C-alpha cells in the first residue's frame, strides 16, 4: 500500500524526532515553520504561524533563489533535462549541460580564468580551490608554500580547509582551534580605503611569501562572518602584492557572484581577476546544489607538470546534468534582463526602508550594498523574538549573532520590498 499523506502535525513530530537542522542542536529547541510550496517571492506555510500562512522570503533561501521560486524558464529546463537524463558520472564521460555551463562561466567571468571544475557545494568549491593552490606549488617544486592568508571576519564554509580560513575567534568554528591547519590572519578590512591597512597587506604578503600558497578573501562583502562591506581598492592591493611575491589569489564569490553587489561579480568593482574563483549559491537560481571552481591556465599547467599530474578530486555528482541545465537557464534568465537596474532598485528600496531602523534603540549600524541590507545591533539578537516579529509582518528572515539582514530575490516588487524592510525593522526592534 502506498504511504498515506502526512499531516502537518505528523511532519513536525517526525522532524523533531529525526531531523538535524543546520546550526542547531538535536533535538531542536524551536519548531521550524513548515513550508508547503513556494512561488515568486512567497513561501506558503502548511499551517499558520503567528497569523500568517504566506511569507515574503527576504533571504532568497540563503542567497541562492535570485529569480524567486517556481520560475517557468527554470522549471522547463529541469523538465527537459529530466526527459534526457538526471545524472551520469563525469569520470570518463561528458555531456552537453556540463560543457555548456563551463563554457558559459568562462565567458562571463573575468579573464584569464579559463578552466572550470564543477562540484556540488560552495564549501567543496573552496576545498577544491585550496587543493588547487597547494598542489600547484608542490608540482612546480615549491612544497613549502602551503599556508593561506586571509583577513579576519571571513566565512568560507563548514568543511575542513574552508573552516581554517573562517574567522578564528568570532566565527562558528572556534571549537576546532588546534586541529585545523594554522593559517595567517590580518585584521578585518576597513570600510573605506586606508593606506596604512593596504601597506599591512603588502608587508604581510611580502614577509610570508615563501610559505604562502595563496591569499583567499570574499571580495567587497564578507558574508556569514559578519555581513561587512569593504573598499574594492583592497582587491587591487592584493592582486599587485600577490603578483609581486609569487602568491596565488583566490576570490570566494559564492555569496557575491551573479549580481548581488551590483556588478556581475564583486571582483568587477575593482577591475581585477583572481587566479582562482569560487562560485555557488545563485549558480542554479536556488534550484539544485551546484558550485564551481575556476582557475587560470597557469594554475592548471602547474598542477599538470607535477609527479601526480591530476587534480585528485571527483565528487560523485560532479557536473550533475540536471543542475547544470538549470544553471545554464538561470544565467540566461539573469543576463537577458536589466538585472543591474533591478539590483539598484533593491538597493534604493532597502536604503529607504531600513533607514528608520537606525533610530531604534540597540541598533549600532544600518548598511546597504546592492541587494544586501543589514541592521547590526549592539547585542546578540534574540532569534525567537526577532523571527516572530518578522513573521507577524509577513516576512521571513534568518538573523544571526548581532545581525538582522536580508538578501531578497531580484524579482521582489516595490511593495513587497517595503514589507521586507518593515519586517527587518520589526525584528530589530524585538530582537
Automatic annotation (TrEMBL):
<feature type="binding site">
    <location>
        <position position="155"/>
    </location>
    <ligand>
        <name>substrate</name>
    </ligand>
</feature>
<feature type="binding site">
    <location>
        <begin position="315"/>
        <end position="316"/>
    </location>
    <ligand>
        <name>pyridoxal 5'-phosphate</name>
    </ligand>
</feature>
<comment type="pathway">
    <text>Cofactor biosynthesis; biotin biosynthesis; 7,8-diaminononanoate from 8-amino-7-oxononanoate (SAM route): step 1/1.</text>
</comment>
<protein>
    <recommendedName>
        <fullName>Adenosylmethionine-8-amino-7-oxononanoate aminotransferase</fullName>
        <ecNumber>2.6.1.62</ecNumber>
    </recommendedName>
</protein>
<feature type="binding site">
    <location>
        <position position="281"/>
    </location>
    <ligand>
        <name>substrate</name>
    </ligand>
</feature>
<keyword id="KW-0949">S-adenosyl-L-methionine</keyword>
<keyword id="KW-0093">Biotin biosynthesis</keyword>
<feature type="binding site">
    <location>
        <position position="252"/>
    </location>
    <ligand>
        <name>pyridoxal 5'-phosphate</name>
    </ligand>
</feature>
<comment type="function">
    <text>Catalyzes the transfer of the alpha-amino group from S-adenosyl-L-methionine (SAM) to 7-keto-8-aminopelargonic acid (KAPA) to form 7,8-diaminopelargonic acid (DAPA). It is the only aminotransferase known to utilize SAM as an amino donor.</text>
</comment>
<dbReference type="InterPro" id="IPR015424">
    <property type="entry name" value="PyrdxlP-dep_Trfase"/>
</dbReference>
<feature type="binding site">
    <location>
        <position position="398"/>
    </location>
    <ligand>
        <name>substrate</name>
    </ligand>
</feature>
<dbReference type="Pfam" id="PF00202">
    <property type="entry name" value="Aminotran_3"/>
</dbReference>
<dbReference type="InterPro" id="IPR015422">
    <property type="entry name" value="PyrdxlP-dep_Trfase_small"/>
</dbReference>
<feature type="site" description="Participates in the substrate recognition with KAPA and in a stacking interaction with the adenine ring of SAM">
    <location>
        <position position="23"/>
    </location>
</feature>
<feature type="binding site">
    <location>
        <position position="62"/>
    </location>
    <ligand>
        <name>substrate</name>
    </ligand>
</feature>
<feature type="modified residue" description="N6-(pyridoxal phosphate)lysine">
    <location>
        <position position="281"/>
    </location>
</feature>
<keyword id="KW-0032">Aminotransferase</keyword>
<keyword id="KW-0808">Transferase</keyword>
<comment type="similarity">
    <text>Belongs to the class-III pyridoxal-phosphate-dependent aminotransferase family. BioA subfamily.</text>
</comment>
<feature type="binding site">
    <location>
        <position position="314"/>
    </location>
    <ligand>
        <name>substrate</name>
    </ligand>
</feature>
<keyword id="KW-0663">Pyridoxal phosphate</keyword>
<dbReference type="GO" id="GO:0004015">
    <property type="term" value="F:adenosylmethionine-8-amino-7-oxononanoate transaminase activity"/>
</dbReference>
<dbReference type="InterPro" id="IPR005814">
    <property type="entry name" value="Aminotrans_3"/>
</dbReference>
<dbReference type="InterPro" id="IPR005815">
    <property type="entry name" value="BioA"/>
</dbReference>
<comment type="subunit">
    <text>Homodimer.</text>
</comment>
<feature type="binding site">
    <location>
        <begin position="122"/>
        <end position="123"/>
    </location>
    <ligand>
        <name>pyridoxal 5'-phosphate</name>
    </ligand>
</feature>
<keyword id="KW-0963">Cytoplasm</keyword>
<dbReference type="InterPro" id="IPR015421">
    <property type="entry name" value="PyrdxlP-dep_Trfase_major"/>
</dbReference>
<dbReference type="InterPro" id="IPR049704">
    <property type="entry name" value="Aminotrans_3_PPA_site"/>
</dbReference>
Amino acid at each position: 500500500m502506498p504511504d498515506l499523506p502526512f499531516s502537518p502535525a505528523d511532519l513536525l513530530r517526525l522532524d523533531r524526532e529525526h531531523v538535524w537542522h543546520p546550526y542547531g542542536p538535536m533535538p531542536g529547541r524551536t519548531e521550524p515553520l513548515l513550508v508547503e510550496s513556494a512561488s515568486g517571492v512567497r513561501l506558503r506555510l502548511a499551517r499558520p504561524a503567528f497569523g500568517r500562512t504566506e511569507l515574503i522570503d527576504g533571504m532568497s533561501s540563503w542567497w541562492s533563489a535570485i529569480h524567486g521560486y517556481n520560475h517557468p524558464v527554470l522549471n522547463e529546463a529541469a523538465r527537459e533535462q529530466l526527459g534526457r537524463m538526471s545524472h551520469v558520472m563525469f569520470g570518463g564521460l561528458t555531456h552537453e549541460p556540463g560543457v555548456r555551463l563551463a563554457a558559459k562561466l568562462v565567458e562571463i567571468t573575468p579573464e584569464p580564468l579559463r578552466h572550470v571544475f564543477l562540484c556540488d557545494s560552495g564549501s567543496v568549491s573552496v576545498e577544491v580551490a585550496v587543493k588547487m593552490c597547494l598542489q600547484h606549488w608542490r608540482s612546480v617544486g615549491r612544497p613549502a608554500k602551503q599556508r593561506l592568508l586571509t583577513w579576519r571576519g571571513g566565512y568560507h564554509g563548514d568543511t575542513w580547509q574552508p573552516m581554517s580560513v573562517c574567522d578564528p575567534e568570532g566565527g562558528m568554528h572556534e571549537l576546532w582551534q588546534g586541529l585545523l591547519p594554522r593559517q595567517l590572519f590580518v585584521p578585518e578590512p576597513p570600510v573605506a580605503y586606508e593606506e596604512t591597512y593596504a601597506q599591512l597587506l603588502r608587508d604581510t604578503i611580502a614577509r610570508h611569501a615563501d610559505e604562502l600558497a595563496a591569499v583567499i578573501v570574499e571580495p567587497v562583502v564578507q558574508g556569514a562572518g559578519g555581513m561587512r562591506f569593504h573598499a574594492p581598492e583592497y582587491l587591487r592591493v592584493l592582486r599587485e602584492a600577490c603578483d609581486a611575491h609569487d602568491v596565488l589569489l583566490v576570490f570566494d564569490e559564492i555569496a557575491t557572484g551573479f549580481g548581488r553587489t551590483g556588478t556581475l561579480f564583486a571582483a568587477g568593482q575593482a577591475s581585477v581577476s583572481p587566479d582562482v574563483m569560487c562560485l555557488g549559491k545563485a549558480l542554479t537560481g536556488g534550484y539544485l546544489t551546484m558550485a564551481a571552481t575556476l582557475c587560470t591556465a597557469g594554475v592548471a599547467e602547474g598542477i599538470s607538470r607535477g609527479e601526480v599530474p591530476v587534480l585528485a578530486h571527483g565528487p560523485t555528482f560532479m557536473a550533475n546534468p540536471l543542475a547544470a541545465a538549470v544553471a545554464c537557464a538561470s544565467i540566461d534568465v539573469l543576463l537577458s534582463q536589466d538585472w543591474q537596474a533591478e539590483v539598484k532598485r533593491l538597493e534604493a528600496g532597502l536604503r529607504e526602508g531600513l533607514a528608520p531602523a537606525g533610530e531604534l534603540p540597540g541598533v549600532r549600524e544600518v548598511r546597504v550594498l546592492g541587494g544586501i541590507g543589514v541592521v547590526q545591533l549592539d547585542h546578540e539578537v534574540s532569534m525567537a523574538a526577532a523571527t516572530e516579529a518578522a513573521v507577524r509582518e509577513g516576512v521571513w528572515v534568518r538573523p544571526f549573532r548581532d545581525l538582522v539582514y536580508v538578501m531578497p530575490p531580484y524579482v521582489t516588487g516595490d511593495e513587497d520590498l517595503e514589507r521586507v524592510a518593515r519586517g527587518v525593522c520589526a525584528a530589530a526592534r524585538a530582537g
